[in-house]
Amino acid sequence: MKRIVSVVLSLFSLSLSIFPANAQDGTAEPVSREWQSRKWEGVMEANLNGNFSTSSRYYVAEYTIGMKYCLAERWSLGFECVGVAPFAFQDRQQTFSSVIDLGLSGAFRIISEDRDRMDLNIGIGSSVLAYSNKEYNLYCDLALHYGFLYDRTARVNPYFALGISYRHPYRTDLYNDKVMLSAGVGFWFR
Questions:
Q1: How would residue 18 be classed by pLDDT, with cut points 50, 70 and 90?
Q2: Domains, the chain, ranges and CATH?
Q3: What is the distance between the alpha carbons of residues 5 and 42, in angstroms, rounded to a whole number?
């Protein structure tokens, strides 16, 4: 846990050192349209993933916190911390402990209008904290994030997420079907 906290704090301090304040004397200069598209955006999301398999059905709850830097009007890159709740199997009494994942994420804005926003989001990462060696895994997520109440001037904007998620355990075969359907809700914040 100390390792995760130190990594998150070092990434945060690095981001603050890269982008200093606009003006040192307290008067802000006018911000150009180009610079407005280049800023940090936070993400908080909760997902429920299920594989809908007939052989070994299970569900995973994911909670994501991340930061993305908008490179251009439509592109952004960032990092994310994903907390995965215990795996729940329907066909047998078998659960596993929670896992903490760290990864990279990227987004491409498909729709950007006055009240609508749709992003194609991809994330890839790996477990950094798990109860035992058999629970470490690699993950890859691909999802559409749709904000139908999007307001460019608001600090917080809600969205719905729908996508697919792939989890591959490193050491054991905890589950047969590693591809899952993912649905969730989240918030973009500035």
A1: very low
A2: 35-189 (2.40.160.20)
A3: 17
